[in-house]
Amino acid sequence: MAGISNLRNFKTCGYYKLFVVFWVIYFFRLFHDLLYENISVGPFGSFHIFGYAIGNCLIPFLLIANNGWKLNIELFKKLFFFTLLFSNVLIIIGIYIQFGGLSLSMLSDRVSITEGDGSSELVLNTILISFYGAILLLISLNEFLKRKDYVRYTIPFLLGASNLLIGAARGPLLGALLIVFFLIINNIRILNKKAIFLSYGAAFIFIGFIFSSYSYDLNIESIDRISTLFDSDQSGNNFKNEARPHEWNSSWEQFLNNPFIGDKILNDYDNYYPHNIYLEVLLSTGVLGGFFFFIPFLKSLIFNFRLQDDFLKIVFLVNVIFGITTGSLYLNVGFWVSLALIIHLFDGKNESLSSI
Question: Which domain holds residue 345?
Answer without folding.
Answer: 1-70+242-356
